[in-house]
């Protein structure tokens, strides 16, 4: 890994806040379902309480209900920004570099030879803080002989901003092969010690933007590969069908769709055919 000073990143603090009642939990559970289609089980009550308690303290709200009523009913700019902030805090999911490596092996061994000499567009459709998109970028930069670009989208504006920075704690580098660390990552020094940043050669080819998978996605453009991984598990069947239909409108005929290995498109769509576990091809018309 090369050494270079990188930009700063920060994480919010934590602390004890007001208790979240069952009725208040239902308000936030409905908000996140109506907004993002995510079904939160009762076991997620502690998660909601933990992630939003600091916001209540910072804003001076004594109860979750008062906070909810402000972000749900008020149309002033501050309330709208805070509503997005609450959604950001409730939709952040786990991700890491080279997660589910069989997918990246498929890209290297099957898709890249098929794309030889072509310019291709790839989409990380639930990109979170960017590790999936940058993993794909490392594979493409090493193996693809042709133009390429990657777009990453997420409903959380906070993680979109983090992904755009492309800066991570050094512990996140554990799954990155040594060769890729050396060629594509810059180690922070001085005040940036303990972090690394994705090299600008890759960051120039990877862009991130907010997007809601339940809404029109035509702004993303048409893509040769779409990774929709480890997000469908949070949706009920009706939302899964809508999200997959929206995403597939942006997949070129003959293009590839990947979902998480714990997910399946059985009963969700007939527009794509499986070629290996969690990997599907959209048939050319």
What does the secondary structure layout of this molecule look like, with pairings?
Elements lengths: L1 E2 L18 H15 L8 H15 L4 H10 L3 H14 L10 H14 L5 E5 L6 H13 L4 E7 L2 H9 L1 E3 L8 H7 E3 L7 E4 L1 H4 L2 E5 L12 E6 L8 H12 L2 E9 L12 E5 L2 E4 L3
Parallel strand pairs: 1-5, 2-3, 2-8, 3-7, 8-9
Antiparallel strand pairs: 4-6, 5-6, 9-11, 10-11
Give an overview in words.
The chain has helices at 22-36, 45-59, 64-73, 77-90, 101-114, 131-143, 157-165, 178-184, 200-203, 237-248, and strands at residues 2-3, 120-124, 148-154, 167-169, 185-187, 195-198, 206-210, 223-228, 251-259, 272-276, 279-282. It is an alpha/beta fold. The chain folds into two domains: 22-90, Chemotaxis receptor methyltransferase CheR, N-terminal domain (Chemotaxis Receptor Methyltransferase Cher, domain 1, Orthogonal Bundle), CATH 1.10.155.10; 101-282, Rossmann fold (3-Layer(aba) Sandwich), CATH 3.40.50. Strands 7-3-2-8-9-11-10 form a seven-stranded mixed β-sheet, covered by helices on one side. A four-stranded mixed β-sheet has the order 1-5-6-4. A hairpin with a 7-residue loop joins strand 5 and strand 6. Helix 5 (101-114) packs across helix 6. The longest helix has 15 residues, at 22-36. 36% of the residues are buried. Residues 3-15 have low confidence and may be disordered.
């Amino acid at each position: 890994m090369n050494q270079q000073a990188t930009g700063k990143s920060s994480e919010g603090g934590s602390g004890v806040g007001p208790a979240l009642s069952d009725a208040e939990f239902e308000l936030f559970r409905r908000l996140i379902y109506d907004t993002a289609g995510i079904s939160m089980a009762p076991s997620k009550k502690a998660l909601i309480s933990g992630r939003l308690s600091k916001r209540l303290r910072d804003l001076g709200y004594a109860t979750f209900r008062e906070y909810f009523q402000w972000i749900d009913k008020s149309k002033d700019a501050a309330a709208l920004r805070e509503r997005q902030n609450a959604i950001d805090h409730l939709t952040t999911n786990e991700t890491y570099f080279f997660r589910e490596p069989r997918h990246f092996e498929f890209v290297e061994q099957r898709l890249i030879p098929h794309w030889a000499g072509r310019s291709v567009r790839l989409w990380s459709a639930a990109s979170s803080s960017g590790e999936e998109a940058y993993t794909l970028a490392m594979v493409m930069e090493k193996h693809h002989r042709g133009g390429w670009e990657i777009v990453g989208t997420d409903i959380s504006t906070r993680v979109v901003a983090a992904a755009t920075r492309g800066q991570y704690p050094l512990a996140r580098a554990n799954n990155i092969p040594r060769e890729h660390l050396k060629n594509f990552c810059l180690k922070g020094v001085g005040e940036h010690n303990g972090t690394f940043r994705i090299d600008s050669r890759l960051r120039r080819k990877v862009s991130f933007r907010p997007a809601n998978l339940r809404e029109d996605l035509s702004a993303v453009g048409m893509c040769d590969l779409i990774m929709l991984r480890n997000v469908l598990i949070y949706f009920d069947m009706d939302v899964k069908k809508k999200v997959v239909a929206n995403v597939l409108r942006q997949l070129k005929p003959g293009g590839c769709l990947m979902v998480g290995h714990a997910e399946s498109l059985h009963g969700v769509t007939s527009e794509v055919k499986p070629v290996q576990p969690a990997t599907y091809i959209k048939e050319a018309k």
